[in-house]
Amino acid sequence: MTVTLRSLETAVPATELVQSEVRDVFAAQPDLSRLGQRLVATSFNASGIERRFSALTEWDGPPAEGEPVYFEAGTGRFLNPSTAARNRIFVQQATELYTRVAAAALDAAEGISAADVTHVITVSCTGFFAPGPDYRIVRALGLNPSVQRYHLGFMGCYAAFPALRQAQTICRADPDAVVLVATVELCTLHVRTSNDPDTIVGSSLFADGAAAAIITGRDLPASTPLLQLDHFETVLTPVGEEAMAWNIGDNGFEMVLGTYVPHIIDEHITGALTPLLARDPSLEHLAYRDIEHWAIHPGGRSILDKVEAKLELREEQLVPAREVLRDYGNMSSATVMFVLQKILRAAAPGSRERVCSMAFGPGLTVETALLTTIGAPVTADAPAVADAPAASAPPAASAQRAATAEPALTHP
User: Fold this and answer.
1) Options 2.60.40.10, 3.90.1170.20, 3.40.47.10, 3.40.50.2300; which CATH number does 226-404 get?
2) Is 157 part of the annotated catalytic residue set?
3) What DSSP letter does each residue of 41-100 carry, written as one string?
4) Domain boundaries 3-216, CATH class
C-alpha cells in the first residue's frame, strides 16, 4: 500500500537572531573566560549559520510587563532562570506554533478536512505539559474528540522519523486513516552562558522552529507535489552514547554535544545506510551520488561536510540542508522537515525522484528514510519531466561501496 505525505508546512517564531550579533553578546558575558571567548568566536564563526529564530521576545527589548526572565536587553546580560520558568514559556509559545503549523498543513492538504483526521502525533524534546500539544491541536482545529493521539517526547534531533514511520504504520493498517504529524522545538529556551565547550557549541547552533504534515494512504487527487513514504530504518552506532545527550537540569535542559560527533558519523554512516538501501534492490548497488536527493539533518556544518565527503555526494545534493542550516540553524527534530520541504517544493511536474534522508541524535542514533517525490500532474504550462534512469552503478562504484562498508551496527 502506498502512503503519501500530502502537505508539509513549516513555521518559526517572530524573533530573528543574527548570528554575528548573538556571537558578540555571548562573547561579552562577564563570567566568560578568555578561552571561553575564543571558543565562542570559533564556534559561531564556523557554524554555517547566518540567522536563527527564537521564541524569546526579550532579545528584542524588555518585556511589556514584569521583569526579564532570560535576557536583559539593556545590559546584554544573560539570566539563568529555573527549568520551571523556561517550561512556562514553552507551554505558551509551543502551543501557538503547534496549532498554527498544524492548521497550515491541514489547509494545504487537498481533499482532506478536519473531520477526516483520525490520528495526531506530536513531537518535542524541549518542553513538557499536559494536556499536551496533541490535545491542544485537537481542540484548536476542531478535530473529532475521538481522534487517537500520541506524543513522542525527548528523543532529540531524529524524532521526526519515528513520527513519520508511525504514521506510515497506522496508514498501512487502516487504509482510511489520516495522520497529522506536528513537531515543535524551542531550543533557545535552554540557552545559557558557560565556559563549557559543549554548551558553547550548542549555543552557536540551536534555534526554534516547527513543522507539520498530513499523511494518508487514501487515493486522492492532488495538484501539488507529494512525498511517498517508502522505507524507514534505525541503527545505533557502536560508540557515541556519551557524545550526544540531552538532560534535564535545574536551570533548563543541558545539551551534551561532543566535538567527536562528526567523526562518529564519518566512521559509521555507510553502515547505517546499508539496511535502508537493502530494502530497495534498485538502489543497493548504486553509488550514493546516483540517488537524486539527500535530505540530511544539518546538525552542524562539520556534520554536513563529513556526510558529503564520505558518501562522495555532489555539492548540489547538500544545498537544501546547507540552506536550512544557514537560514534557520539546528531546530532539533523539526529541521529535517524543513529540508524535505525544500526538496518537495522543487519537484518538477510529472517527475518521480528518490530521496534518501538521515537524522542523528542521542545514542548515537541514526534514523534513515527512503522517500519518493511525486511531481504535480502535468499541465499545458508544465511539460512532463522524464524520470531519471535507474542505471546500474559502474564496477568502480560497486567496489567502492563494498570496500567502505562497515561492520553491522546494532539494528533494533
Assistant:
1) 3.40.47.10
2) yes
3) HHHHHTS--SEEEES-GGGGS--SSS--SSEETTTTEE----HHHHHHHHHHHHHHHHHH
4) alpha beta
